[in-house]
Amino acid sequence: MGHRIIFATGNEGKMREVRAILADLGLPVLSMKEAGADPVIVEDGKTFGENAQIKAQAVWNCTGDIVLADDSGLVVDYIGGEPGIYSARYMGEDTSYVIKNQNIIDRLKDAKGKERSARFVCNIAAVLPDGRVLHAEETMEGLIAEKPAGTGGFGYDPILYLPEFGMTSAEITMEEKNKISHRGKALEAIKRVLAAELEKDGRDSR
Ligand code: IMP
Questions:
Q1: Which CATH number fits domain 5-204: 3.40.50.720, 3.90.950.10, 1.20.950.20, 3.40.605.10?
Q2: Which of 4, 11, 94, 137 is deepest in the core (most CB within 10 A)?
Q3: Across the chain, which distance is largest between two alpha carbons, in Å?
């Protein structure tokens, strides 16, 4: 199979996490930039999975190899799954998360207990050298907090209350979050799938 893995992101923080988790596959892990790919990507999918696949296939068209891409966001049940795939663009890309987070809390002012259920979702698409596409999707489940708390993490972390920790996603440590996060678990899942493919490939070429 391909001799390298390319992760379709421009985000260095994400690349560090990806490199750490995928290291034991024994293949070099490159960012899009390191692989020299800079395609125009129109994320017009209707699901996290479609958007992840659009990104991965756009880069795969430039490079081949094994290309991974992720798409994630916050899904709040009480407001019909919003902001969902529009999490980054919710209330405008340049609006601060202080405002976005307060707006979500305000929209849930009448929601009680389990009605406040919400989750981060991450879908990772992998395009293999032969063009086959595989997916892994994982969540981090919680409740929308009554008020924002914590300074760790980013984005919507201060408003996702994690009952098993008694804290929001912005109050737990990064190590704790990486172990239980939607993205951490989806990366572990896609790693298992890729490891199985690499093993099969090794057997077939023997
Ligand atoms: P991306 O697909 O990783 O770029 O994430 C899209 C958007 O989802 C981000 O801009 C955040 O608004 C939100 N999001 C995804 N993951 C997290 C997280 O772990 N914490 C807080 N917000 C997140």
A1: 3.90.950.10
A2: 137
A3: 63
